[in-house]
Amino acid sequence: MPIPGVPNSSRPVRLIALMNQKGGVGKTTTTVNLAAAIARTGRPTLVVDMDPQAHASIALGVDPTAASHTVYDLLIGTPTPQLAASAVHDVGNNLFVLPSHTDLAATESELAMAPDRLQRMERVLAAFEGRFEFVLIDCPPSLGLLTLNALAAAREVLIPMQAHFLALQGVGKLLETVRALAVGPTAINPRLKVAGVVLCMHDTSSTHTKEVVADLDGFFEAARGQDVPWKMARVFRPAIRRNIKLAECPSFGKTIFDYAPLATGAEDYKALADVFVRDWDAFLSARGIVIEKKREAPIVETRSSVPVESSSLESPRG
Ligand SMILES: Nc1ncnc2c1ncn2[C@@H]1O[C@H](COP(=O)(O)OP(=O)(O)O)[C@@H](O)[C@H]1O
Ligand SMILES: [Mg+2]
Predict the structure, then answer these.
(1) Which of 146, 196, 295, 310 is deepest in the core (most CB within 10 A)?
(2) Residue stretches of the chain with pLDDT short of 70
(3) Where are the domains positioned within the chain?
(4) How far apart are alpha carbons 287 and 219 in whole angstroms?
(5) 156-161 and 134-138 beta bridge pairing
(6) How confident is the model at residue 307, as a pLDDT?
């Protein structure tokens, strides 16, 4: 079986790990729905589920207990193109998922003595080279071996979080972890950068929330020009508003675009995806890399619906 995705050996890939050691902040919701929105712009997109809880797999309609091969087999075994192909599920509209399995929790101890234990994910992704334009890795809520593997393989870290005062401290710890992995003689991934923060379950009306967002903006502004992996980082706009439809859709194995395409959750993730796609296209064109124009998949399926004007949802810093 050929590896799914669109073969193009020269295709560069945008490799993003979604990470926050805290649980319940919106990592999986953002991985799944941001990936779905990017995929719907015509970019072959892979979700890698690195969490033994397999929430991203389930949210994309894949039963991890029934999957013949999962990310676990690829991390533990030899990730041949054949094994990689058999593990990936095509969930439609250019979106693919490499599912997780509860066995993944055993990886920490099984790989503990392996000299290449931090490079396993990099090996797995090498088996997919040229197939996907975007790869989004959903990390577990810890800083263990699975998350470290994701960070060793990724080029960018995206931090889903809620705009609460205490969450700021967690972000500080997380940034220091990224720095330890990216800078210095023991760095395992010197190319790793922090893309920024996605605000999840956002309450636009709260004064406290606005203060926290202003603090975050100020923090990242102050890092410009410094020699830190977050010197280019920003708080992405739009924030993802709290929307019950986003909490409902995983139990149907659907993304927000299939479950409730007119919900604010769909609007926000589409607008956020447009920022990621636009930045990526600008990055590619600055390097003279031309990717053929692709067909836009319809994101809003009903005739009477009104397409979202993404520009009206973004701040100038976008
Ligand atoms: N914008 C949102 N509005 C409402 N509920 C949300 C939103 N984002 C996430 N949730 C819900 O919050 C819970 C935690 O989100 P999840 O993405 O699973 O976090 P994590 O992966 O960081 O543990 C889930 O029940 C999810 O459905
Ligand atoms: Mg999760």
Answers:
(1) 146
(2) 1-10, 291-318
(3) 14-284
(4) 29
(5) unpaired
(6) 30
